[in-house]
Amino acid sequence: MHKISNASTAALLLNPAKSQYLERLMQREWSIAALSADLAHDLSSVHYHVGQLVRHGLVCVTRTQKRAGRAVKHYRASAASFFVPFALTDFETLLAFWQAILEPSHTAFVRKLVAVAERRNSYPQSWGVLLECDALSGLKLRSEPRPTITPTDPVSWLSEDDLHLTHSQARALQLELKAVIAKYQQLSGPNGYTVRAGLVAD
Known about the structure:
Elements: E1 2-3, H1 7-13, H2 16-27, E2 30-31, H3 32-39, H4 43-55, E3 59-65, E4 72-77, E5 82-83, H5 94-120, E6 128-134, E7 138-144, H6 167-185
Parallel strand pairs: 1-5
Antiparallel strand pairs: 2-4, 3-4, 6-7
């Protein structure tokens, strides 16, 4: 684990725009061209972002591949993990810190969810929100009308449920959810999916 010691590096490391680059570079080494192709980002943009990570010591050159013309550099994260002390951030509270960290990924998740719904329903002007309430689950909100789903549609699902469990039941559910996600992470397919899962005590 590499402990970050200055505020500018901490800000860079926690910048959502850098996360997709850092994630891949922490998994294995990449050339700029390969990373650009994988992310479908402009070559100059990838070179800029990776260069910033290199200047702050978060990424390093692992090898240089000789070829006719300019040699190809390969990059990888300089550590398997990074620790950012809360004192180096600009946030006054832990709540503000985690809201800033989680908000971009939550927004991206909702954007993808809506995009799938829009492909299934060509008349968004007829959409609305249905509010229902029952004794077991409390207030529920859902989109109406429900879109028609065909066998070739992308799979999507969002659920927020209130559960009443013992501590041991909640621990068992936590372990089951982790195991299921880990199982499917080992698989490989042509379609990318984002999973958001959480369990927190009221």
